[in-house]
């Protein structure tokens, strides 16, 4: 198990955004500072440590106050149940990614990307539309000693270009985002990519179009609104009907 005493991450980080994110981060966790990030092992994936929020609403308020502008919710400061399931599955089945070019779509904290790198992927790219997520992914990759390329772009209009494996943890979290993700997943599958989703059953995974590979029963650390959610699955598309 890696230890995280000291602050080796500080010398390895670059952007002003990362410095803003990490300014109040504690490493290892110290006395409660509820609007801060804490380096935390991920419950279902203790191989990975992430900068996570103690209270993401308070963190969000602080970041908005510092930025002086409204910001998207800091989804990157939570290890979502779908991402935890998918990262666990990839680490337990490394042949899925080993030696392959992997895209972690809707990467958030970078959890799934880091797991793919640990499992032996040839190259890992993490994509998210939130620039704060990109800063967090880079900080988390550094802290875990992994190299992850990052893209701050919505890639859902395409088919995943030449990525051989596409992973997406908790990408079906509302109707609007699911409406972008599902056609993308279908196009990627149809050109031959391996596509895996992690999903805790939020109601946006169309029955019959996604097959369950495994389900974990865990008391996971999720978003505050996930409350007692304790089941999370890994899914793969099965039908060309996903394509539009
Ligand atoms: C619920 S979080 C999941 C994060 C991570 N995969 C996990 O499981 O912990 C969803 C993420 O999707 C990102 N997102 C939303 N729409 C997106 C899009 N069109 N392309 C890429 N990322 C997107 C959000 O910014 C957010 O970071």
Q: What does the model show?
A:
The chain has a domain at 76-242: Vaccinia Virus protein VP39 (Rossmann fold), CATH 3.40.50. Helix content is 30%, strand content 23%. It has seven helices and nine strands. It has helices spanning 8-12, 16-22, 56-67, 81-92, 111-118, 131-143, 175-190; strands at residues 37-42, 45-53, 101-105, 123-128, 149-152, 165-169, 194-199, 210-217, 231-237. The strands form two sheets. It has a seven-stranded mixed β-sheet, sandwiched between helices. A two-stranded antiparallel sheet has the order 1-2. The longest helix is centred in the C-terminal third of the chain and has 16 residues, at 175-190. It is globular and about 45 Å long. Bound molecules: S-adenosylmethionine. S-adenosylmethionine is lined by residues 75-76, 79-80, 82-83, 105-109, 111-112, 127-130, 133, 154, 156, 169-171, 173, 177, 180.
Largest sheet: 7 strands, mixed
Helix proportion: 25-40%
Strand count: 9
Q: Class of one domain in CATH?
A: Alpha Beta
Residue runs with pLDDT of under 50 for 5 or more positions: 1-12
Instruction: Please state the second-level CATH architecture of one domain.
Output: 3-Layer(aba) Sandwich
């Amino acid at each position: 198990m890696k230890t995280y005493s000291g602050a080796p991450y500080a010398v390895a980080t670059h952007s002003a955004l990362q410095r803003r994110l990490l300014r109040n981060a504690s490493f290892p966790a110290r006395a409660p500072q509820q609007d801060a990030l804490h380096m935390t092992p991920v419950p279902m994936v203790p191989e990975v440590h992430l900068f996570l929020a103690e209270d993401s609403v308070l963190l969000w308020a602080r970041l908005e106050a510092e930025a002086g502008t409204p910001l998207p919710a800091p989804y990157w400061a939570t290890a979502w149940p779908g991402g935890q399931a998918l990262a666990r599955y990839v680490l337990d089945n490394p042949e899925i990614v080993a030696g392959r070019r992997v895209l972690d779509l809707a990467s958030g904290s970078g959890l799934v990307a880091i797991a793919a790198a640990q499992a032996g992927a040839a190259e890992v790219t993490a994509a998210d539309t939130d620039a704060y997520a990109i800063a967090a992914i880079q900080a988390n990759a550094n802290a875990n000693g992994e190299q992850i390329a990052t893209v701050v772009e919505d890639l859902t209009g395409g088919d995943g270009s030449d990525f051989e494996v596409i992973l997406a943890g908790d990408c079906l979290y509302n109707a609007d985002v699911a409406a972008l993700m599902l056609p993308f997943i279908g196009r990627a599958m149809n050109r031959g990519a391996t596509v895996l989703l992690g999903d805790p059953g939020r109601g946006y995974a169309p029955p019959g179009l996604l097959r369950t590979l495994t389900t974990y029963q865990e008391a996971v650390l999720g978003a505050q609104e996930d409350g007692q959610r304790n089941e999370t699955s890994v899914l793969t598309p099965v039908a060309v009907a996903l394509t539009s």
